[in-house]
UniProtKB/TrEMBL annotation, chains A, B, C, D:
One of its GO terms (molecular function) is fatty acyl-CoA hydrolase activity. It comes from Pseudoduganella aquatica. Pfam families: 4HBT_2 (PF13279). InterPro entries: 4-hydroxybenzoyl-CoA_TE, HotDog_dom_sf. This is Acyl-CoA thioesterase. It comes from the Bacteria.
Length: 150, 150, 150, 150
């Protein structure tokens, strides 16, 4: 019997001229900018929590504390990447995510990331705010549990 | 009597965290990256000429030779910018464009740009390739002429 | 008799992999990031006014309101660019600058820029703070006057 | 008895306005751009192998295949970061590096990276070219061995 599908928030992005390096492929830090934009879209559209409002008005930060990436194959200008995001762990003041970039049925980048919720006024970690925790738990529950990191 | 509307290719983009500076507003070079992405979308979707193919396979360049910008009001993270593009002049080997970024009914950035068609092999200017010229002329004709630069 | 030399604050920067596009030359918005960094160095080292302190602690902004650039020749990865800056006008709440990027005796980019002093708390323009005005006037006087824009 | 010091190539960089996000601290992908620039300086100045020539003329690529980062403390605009690099492993066609960014005696970012030597013409991995291997071995030998990853 098949495993239940992982929760996954997906969007497509075009590999643009501005993402590419002199070798004509995505410059690796640009994947991280794209993944960050994907987390932003997930907040806005998946969790229903306005990212700009969360950072700008509520003065919450979401700094990354841990990042692992495997770059499995290059991506070329003009390709369409599918970005996908799953939650792997919800801590007290941290959220672990797995992000993937794929194109043409091929995994290009696999990334595990740990973000921490902070106060931008004190620069210290704070417990995940209630509405965010609630939205995270709803997301995870909808698809039968956390994604397994790999 | 109203003037005929300018030809205008429009798309919306979200002002993302990654576009903003420590003042919480769009860092000005990011507008130019957004405008460049808009030219890319215009090639792909407006002119019907694949931008990545034009650069990558046909080895044509589109370097900018002249750029004027007025930054009229700041844009904040979370706003949706409307990017609009009109052709102001078609030369022998150059294309003059006007780009605008607006939000909430307010013009934020107005930019006039001159791009030149080149060969990436010789790094010299070349006449605008026939299919591109044809697509440009069709675009301009559809709305009754070139946009007036301002 | 030779004209008096323009006031000029100069620094060298390496054209890095990260500055270059799939055509192997500096992606044009990167020149603007480099020029912004040069203004930063000029504040710190030429004017003797800490840029980070000016923005971060004193909460003054320096948004650009007007930008003109001519891109005269491309710059390749590995080249060393000489960035040079001169003051062309000191207004009540605005500073006009001319920036140049050159390499191998050849002007690559010429840019005229107008920056405005603002309060980051009100987002409105403010008169140029006294210490900054004083430093600007000293700079200009040292070399016999404002640079002529061109 | 003290351990022999790790081999370390060090340079200082200023945290610039352009590196910082709306929270006023370095936007994490910018650390990776800074580390990439540090690898570039290390090639040019530490290994004596021109990075731009290696990529541009010899058509060798150095794509990253694996990246781990720990972001231990934020860095603010105006701080001076010390970037340091050590070799942790030399493979057949791969080089493992450890990079650190520190300021004020505090480790800010620790990163382990694996780069692979490729041909830009075939996009396949190639054995580390002889002159690069020789330079790498000399670097490591000078300080009594590989750095221990941590």
């Amino acid at each position: 019997m098949d495993a239940k599908p992982d929760y996954s928030f997906e969007r497509e992005v075009l590999v643009r001229f501005a993402h590419c390096d002199p070798a004509g492929i995505v410059y690796f830090p640009q994947y991280l900018v794209l993944f960050n934009g994907h987390v932003e879209d997930w907040f806005n559209e998946g969790l229903g929590i306005g990212y700009a409002h969360f950072i700008g008005e509520r003065r919450c930060g979401l700094p990354m504390v841990k990042l692992d990436c495997e770059f499995k194959a290059p991506s070329k200008m003009g390709e369409r990447l599918t970005l996908s995001l799953g939650v792997t762990k919800i801590g007290n003041s941290s959220i672990a995510l797995q992000l993937r970039a794929s194109a043409q049925g091929q995994l290009r980048v696999l990334s595990n990331q740990v973000l921490v919720t902070t106060s931008l006024d004190t620069n210290k970690s704070i417990p995940i705010p209630g509405d965010l925790r609630h939205a995270l738990e709803r997301c995870v529950a909808e698809l039968g549990g956390l994604r397994t990191p790999c």
